[in-house]
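To whoever is covering the structure queue this week,

Two jobs came back overnight. Logging them here so there's a record in the thread.

Job A:
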Amino acid sequence: MAKKAVSKDEILNAIRLVASESGKPPSRSAFIGHTGISEYHVLKHFPSWNNAVEAAGLEPDTTNVPIKDDDLLADWARLVRELRQIPTRVQYRHYGNFCTGVFEHHFGPWSCLPDRFRSFAGDRDEWKDVLTLLPLKKSDTTDIGAISEKKAGVKSVSPLSPLARNHSRLDDRPI
């Protein structure tokens, strides 16, 4: 049996009806459960569920909308600018606009944020003051150390090499 086609106006009226009964814009599953109108019919007339809710004159629930990396980094930089230092996770939880877990999901460990911000900021003038507050990249400090050692004629020693030991080897003792 073929189901009856549902018009755009019927969908909008049904969304408004469910919203008036529940006191808030309906979720997709609540709408389908209450009206019996399938998601297929809604998406025939609208590109997304949120577009259908907006067309009905309501504010869609946007709590589960993906957050852009640029928005996260801009908010982190705002706090760096205010505090004049890199915020700790606790400071960011208190003053930031997002959950710290979102940062770790997007960028990895909290300690990676300065490097990720550098990539994001690039040479843009609006972030120069924040960039000056960030520590040097680890690769920058090792490059500077290696260059100064070469100029001074110092031989670079790996921490695991025999030359790096602070004491003589004790062959008569177990390791």
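Job B:
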Amino acid sequence: MSSEKNWSLLGHEWAVEMLREHLRRDGLRHAYLFAGPPGVGRRSLALRFAQALNCTQPLAAGEPCLECRTCKQIEARRYPDLAIVQAEKEGGVLKVEQIREVQRSLMLAPYQGRYRVALFLRFHEANANAANALLKTLEEAPRQVILLLTADSPELLLPTIVSRCEVLRLRPLPIESVLAYLQGRGAEESQARLLAHLSGGRPGYALRLSQDTSAFEFRQMRLDDLQKLLASDRRARFAYAERLTDRKNEAKERFRETLLIWLAYWRDVMLRVARADSPLTNVDRMDEIESLAARLSLAEARRIVNDLENAVDRLEKNVNARLLAEVLLLDWPKGT
């Protein structure tokens, strides 16, 4: 399916078709949850759906024109009937006060469009009070209100919230699709191929890496650190954990980014140990990954991956970051 027939989006054709059918058949749900890894396109799909809900010049039923004043306002996130709610920064906390503020506006009739749309980005960052506050709205949503949520995974949300939403699980795209997307935006093939692999099939993240050299350099630095840590003693690892979680440097957010970079790397190691056919993410680090994989058992590689996955989850729950880093690094193999 071409992007023009897919709401001008890359991938997730099945999700677009499902939402289109809900519009065509007057089968709208009052709440939708777009779940998937960051950069996979969940926010883009949610905004396009908001355009389809309120477009004043639809090309056909369920087909936003993307050119009318309403579509352009939603694209720019300046539409009076669109409320966007999120934590102040990625890895932060979405608070109950933010939920209550938008709840007051949702009680009013739409100002300009057919529906008031509330988009709650990264809702897995909501604290318990915020989640419970939204639950009340989900249970008693006004007729002309559509609630849209995005999250890394439905399992990170309260089951009572998930059960009241139409859940769309968005998967990473094929590497070749992201490669073609980046080349279409002017990237050289070699660079586009590397970024497509690094993104793990997430076009939004690939585009961010292509436009933000600091993000790419940060990844390089953290992977260089990983190699140094493998050759370091306990004292050096303790010192690194202290620097990594220093509160003066927006530590939690950067620590989370570091964990995700390391997690993708160790998953590659595990795939090589297992001799899996799946494409690697860090293709520019192939020699390092092959060397490390040759010295580890599958059980060891899997344990490190599991530890990193658990660390990301525990960091979201506000555990002691420094202690978390120390335990994690001390369990890494040495001398490899």
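Note for Job B: DSSP finds 15 helices and five strands in the chain.

Please reply-all if you pick these up so we don't duplicate work.
Q.
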